[in-house]
Amino acid sequence: MNLEQLPALTVLSDNVTIVEKDDVKIVRVIHEKASAGICLHGGHVVSFQPKGQPDLIWMSEQAIFDGKAALRGGIPVCWPWFGRIAAPAHGFARNSEWTLLEHRENENGVIVELGLLPSESTLAVWPHQFQAHLLVEIGDELKVTLDVTNTDTQAWTFSGALHTYLTVGDIEQAATTGMGPEYIDSLKDGEICQGGETLQLTDTIDRVYTQPSAQITVQDPVLNRSLVVENQGHNSAVLWNPWAEGAQGMGDMQDDGYQTFLCVESTLHAPSIEQGKTLQPGESHQLVTTLSSK
After folding, report:
1. C-alpha–C-alpha distance, residues 192 and 69, integer Å
2. Cα–Cα distance for residue pair 223/175, rounded to 1 Å
3. How many domains, the chain?
4. Which residues share a beta bridge with 237?
5. Which of 163, 230, 234, 269 is catalytic?
6. Contacts with 148 (C-beta within 8 Å, 6 or more apart), sequence order
7. What is d(CA 286, CA 231) in angstroms, rounded to the nearest whole number?
8. For residue 222, is it within any domain?
9. The CATH number of the domain where 135 resides is what?
10. pLDDT in tens, 43-76
């Protein structure tokens, strides 16, 4: 996503400005190590481009920047649930307006922190008190941390994901390793399946890998690089691509969009909200994904 063409609304520092695309404000980072963009709508990372490289993050050419719809591509923040186990799908965080709390930089990169608190709209669908921070660290690699705290007087349960869309040159040539052998196949009514050590796609995929390695690597011969995903605070890794038929059914994705991305997600998976992770009052949890290329 080319953010450099957007005019600055506010200059916050030498490296950080606020820009706007349609109805969405974006924290734009331009540093000698890398450039990046984080939308306040959804706390949504839409770009991470190390110097001299193509963007690691894929965004749909038809993503809707109206400040209402969830953005197609980037790193959607799915919280306080992941999937369609409640409405709205993937929770309210990706459709909420986040607040820029802090930014700081040095020669190694830039750190941007966003925050989200309860509102009438969040309480209407999930009646709990919370504090959510999104820490985005931009340098030679990208590290995104979703830090959630229970500020309520009672325990609550949740699930979630950092739903990263990775850019690849050609999805049929990309080879993924490190996702582990066992997965729940969402296209087969949640059947538990066993897979090989290397995954190369020829059709749609929607899988919850339950035993991922510390690193998942996507080898991309077309762009001549390997993308490395390291996750923490998760219990699984979701891999997803809608393929041609799925892309054609999405109003916010070009028909051939599926050819140039693969979702590799840091996921705290649960079949229902009640079966999610429990946080007692005052407790916190961090869900993390780190992206790099080599």
Report:
1. 33
2. 13
3. 1
4. 209, 266
5. 163
6. 79, 80, 130, 131, 132, 133, 158, 160, 279, 284, 285, 286, 287
7. 10
8. no
9. 2.70.98.10
10. 999 999 999 999 999 999 999 999 999 999 999 9
Domain region containing 262: 8-169+237-293
Of the listed 105, 113, 230, 265, which one is catalytic?
265
Q: Summarize pLDDT for 124-161 with one digit per residue, the tens.
A: 999 999 999 999 999 999 999 999 999 999 999 999 99
Does the residue 101 lie in any domain?
yes
Q: Please, which residues bridge with residue 29 across strands?
A: 16, 36
- Within a domain: 139: yes
In a domain, 89, yes or no: yes
Clarify whether 265 is annotated catalytic: yes
β partners of residue 97: 41
Which token pair is 259?
A: 């050819």
CA torsion, points 208, 210, 214, 215, in degrees to nearest 10? -30
